[in-house]
């Protein structure tokens, strides 16, 4: 198992728009492409509270490449993302990490 941790750093005041997009649009596309989330978090305390962190579980990097590329190339997703940013951009930058569990991890 591989865990992908993604951190979306939002433009000021745009976190609610990102949360709305995930809740009402993105998760439907995740389901369509078999992308399985572990969870989503906002920052309660830290350097910035304009971030969304989430984790996705993959069986392999090959599975990730196939499913993520299909999702990212979906014309309906591209249109929905563009519409959600018609007013102004939501995300300033994205951090992406691929994690593997240790032998003693509860998640393996």
From TrEMBL:
User: One matching Pfam family, short form?
Assistant: NIPSNAP
State the signal peptide span: none
Q: In which domain of life is the source organism classified?
A: Bacteria
What range(s) does the NIPSNAP domain occupy? 3-105
State the InterPro entries in the record.
Dimeric_a/b-barrel, NIPSNAP
The name this protein carries in UniProt is NIPSNAP domain-containing protein
Q: Which organism is it from?
A: Cupriavidus pampae
